[in-house]
Amino acid sequence: MAEGRIVWDATGERLYETGVDHGVLYILDSDGTYKNGVAWNGLSAVTESPSGAEATAVWADNIKYLNLMSAEEFGATIEAYTYPDEFGQCDGTAELVEGVTVGQQSRKTFGLCYRTRIGNDVDGDQHGYKLHIIYGALASPSEKGYQTVSDSPEAISFSWEVTTTPVNVSGMSATASLVIDSTKSNPEKLTALENILYGTDAGEEGTPAATAPRLPLPDEIKTLMTAGA
User: Fold this and answer.
1) HSE-up of 136 (CA within 13 Å, CB side)?
2) Which residue from 11, 72, 124, 173 has the highest number of Cβ atoms inside 10 Å of its Cβ?
3) In the predicted model, what is the mean pLDDT of residues 91-98?
4) Neighbouring-strand partners of residue 97
5) Residues 179-204: pLDDT tens digits?
């Protein structure tokens, strides 16, 4: 706990968050793991929309006896100018023959990792970053509006509403979201985690062979980030 008088807006402490990049899509495998991540290029926005956690008053003895809180759910809206081919199976499409897809198919569960930047008054938006991870996501059908090219052309923007099913976390409530702050994490452990999330090339980080990107579950991330602590 800090001692002395509080100081507001001290140099280096005027923090803010901005941007979204380094999107990675992971399809949920039949064994409950998220393997073979692929880059999500053109990711333009992720709007996180938690819901629930609403208080219900309980009255007794002519007074407000207590508040009961409803369960909290995690949802999001993903916006992008394009999406990886692998996302088609999460968006209800399937390949009929090569180059031909059909819609209204079953939708696969996926995980998503993306990064936002942390800025301050000294380093600008290069102060640090946060890794955001979403588990158990399902995309709802979305509207796609196609318009003629005019003298004010605009790229088509796709959008998906996402609901989630939380995954287990030892010692805590199940969750569908996790955030890692680079300014508060051990750099070596964070690099090790990013090597798992993004994969490695042969010979990189001492690996004899290339490793495929995958999305570790919260318990594995906790073990990795506390190893040797």
Assistant:
1) 16
2) 72
3) 88
4) 100
5) 999 999 999 999 999 999 999 987 76
Q: Which two tokens stand for residue 185?
A: 């994490």
Place of tokens 């949802």: 75
Rounded distance between C-alpha atoms, residue 78 and residue 47, angstroms: 7
* Packed helices 187-198 and 218-226: angle between N→C axes, nearest 10 degrees: 150
Q: What percent of the chain has pLDDT over 90?
A: 62
- CA dihedral sign, ordered 112, 113, 115, 116: positive
Sorted by sequence, the CB contacts under 8 Å of residue 95 that are 6+ apart come out as: 88, 101
Tokens of residue 53, six digits: 């956690």
Q: How far apart are CA 189 and CA 117, in angstroms?
A: 19
- How many helices, marked H, and strands, marked E, lie in the chain? 2, 16
pLDDT at site 196:
95
